Amino acid sequence: MDPMNRGPEEFGQDRRDDTTGSGGRQRPPRDQYTPDFGQPSPTLARTVQLVSGDYLLTVNPVDGSEIEPCPPGERPGRPGKYDATERAELARAARPPLPPGPALPRLPLLERQEERERLVRLLARGRSVRLTGPSGAGRTALLDQIAEDCLDIAPDGVIRLSGHRRTANDVLHELFGAVYNAPLHRPDRALLLELVHEIGAVVVLDDLEFGGAALDELLEATPECAFLLSATPDVAAPSADSHVEEVFLGGLGRGGSLELLERAVGRVLTDDEAQWAGDLWFESEGLPLRFAQAGSLLRQRDLLRADPGAFDAFGFYDGPGAAPVDASFDAEDGHDVPLPSLADGAAPAALLASRLSESARATLRFAVALGGEIPHQAHLPALVGDTHADAALAELVSCSLVTAVGARYRLASGVQVQLEAAGYGDDTVEYARTAARHYAWWAGHPSVGPERVAAESDAVLAALAVLVPATTPPTEDETSPSVELARAAAPAFAAGLAWSAWERALRSGQEAARLAGEVPEEAYFHHELGILALLGGHLDRARAELEASIGLRGALADKRGSIAGRRALALVADRSGGALPGGRTAAGEEVPDAMYEESASPPRGVPAAYPLPEPPRVPQTVVSRQAPAAASPAGTGKAPTRKSIVGGTRRNLVAAGAGALLAAVLGTVVTLGATSNNDEPPSDRVGTNPSATAGESGGDLGADTADQEDGDSGAGSTSGPTDPGKDGIPGTADDPAPSTSAGRPSDEPSGSKKPDDPTKSPSKSPSKPPSTKPPTTKPPTTKPPTSSEPPPSSEPPTSEPPTTPPESSPDTSDSASSPVGSAPVSSSAAVSPSGSGASDGSTVM
Q1: 3-state percent breakdown (helix, strand, coil) of the chain, nearest 5
Q2: 185, 237, 355, 553: which sits with the fewest CB atoms below 10 Å from its CB?
Q3: What one-character-per-residue DSSP string does 323-334 give?
Q4: Structural domains of the chain ordered from first start
Q5: What's the pTM?
Q6: Which secondary structure element, helix H or strand E, spans residue 52, and what is its range?
């Protein structure tokens, strides 16, 4: 049920008070002696969901905002434009509110006809114009008149915007919001540029505070708009390539100044007043604001001349800055009140304020404390403590002490400095603290919409700017007003799509929480800053802010806040395309690729360090070469990168074992070949002696070599002819033990296997009858098991193979003992046709 519209059943009144069970829910009996103290309902938290680019943002003021990729069903469609009636309504809402009381007279626009016609003509041609003039020259009044003249020029009408404390990106988003109907939708940069590119309107931008490249960016993004920009001379000028027309607006002439003063007073000036106005024109260079304020001084003088107690009803001010009043009375001329001095005419704020009501003077003190910002008239009764304090705004407007800036009012040019000199800024911190506590209560109230809070953002941020540097750790019974205000206003700014104010409030709140020592609030502001950075695409900044928030909340055992932070941090990791630092995911799980290399086994297992010995009675050993590893990428020299490759000390152990195995096999084979004493080869075996052919020189008898070792191939591979070795036996180029069996007779021991098919002999010439010279058998060679990396040391293994016996004393035994640590092998080891041994991939058994 709706908590604001509760039905009768929630009060136990459904079906009356039926206790028999026939009428519905039975109402429990109540103890008549126990008073019914109802528990107060908790304050509702204002949560708002909005779409920003590809994200769905849930603004949660309790634990922190939550962000997730926007589901397809939640994505808004392409926004449509407002019609003419809706635009007119928005334009009226964007104007500053009218002060209560009778309507004030509107001063005429004097001596501005030439500038007015020129500006309208340029805007009608689609040209952008910058109107430059000093503060108080009447730029805002001229813009109001031109806006009325250009209503029918552009298809999207005239759009009034304020550039006060706004960036180019802020202006683009405000322009989008003034033309397109897109509630709770903040488009990303690409969509924003696409939409504002289609806007065709006359944009009147007052109080511009940026220029140069930022202004060029704004103009390039809106090629179909004609801008009328208003700025002071101290603002950076447009670039030379922007093609913006410059129009300078100066002061009024002497005649125009006197006419404006008469319109402000409402009567013809006397000779003394005209002389005084002439001196004022020379002093103020004809600024219209000075003559509007001078007209207020003369009106006050007329009231005092008619009645010396005219301002007593408002609590006449007699403090610093008050003007002396001559109460002398003349029956004919009435009270004699002198003209203000020339200094008072040039700086009239203190004198004008001294004749205002107490509520108006209190409002001025709040304005001075807030950096010139006037709180909305609806807040004045609560701030000042007077139920009729909203009428103070009318007094300030009639005296020209405030001026309109967008939809708000500010102190007019120079008034801030003049009031501070008169003592209105003595209690700045106290007035700012009072405003902060009021705005914190108001912004956090559930009945206040975020749009209303966003409209009051300038005053809220001004209060934070004053209080944050003066923040101190609060006592046990109170909280820091700056932290409280930032905590209440920041979610409302986010929900109201005032993200520039949102960022400023978060940074002010984070600094205030740090100074006040309020760790939970500091964690909240870090979290929100991380969310804002993620929405803006600044992933590194978002990661830093979220990690800081998670760390603080982890120390506070804030489980819900930590979960919200980790979810956002996981989204940052997903957008950045990698795991979080430390080899762990955002949820704290270990990333598989971040494990140490020693923690995984190789794909084919870890080979044994030493061969397993067979029983001595078995005179046969099968030797095989380990299957080669996968080919490495070109140019890398390593196997494909896998984290499971053996590394560290285990890799050294495997390499040492492979070397020991190779040494044992080679030693056994060499020993068998050297001790063999067969005189004649079998009749069905092709001899190993080369056939006699004509030498290359034609004079000697050469030999066709049958085998030549290739440096890159395995044992037994055939290649072209080489130089004959000793006794015509070709040598091997990569034999690890040279001169071990060259020229030695070889005998086939008993019990050996049948030789291979003669057709598989590597000889390249026709077979000849065996010669009388005893043939020798070529010992098979094997390569060590291939590995992705060479052994770290090239030293020979401890099991050194025995050297070849002398030629003159060959061993005639049929078998020989294997080296230490290896199994005995037979002289008839099975060899594949390629000479590399068995190719089944088996290891030593």
Answers
A1: 40, 10, 55
A2: 237
A3: PP----EETTTE
A4: 104-250 (3.40.50.300), 595-693+703-845 (no CATH)
A5: 0.65
A6: strand 48-52
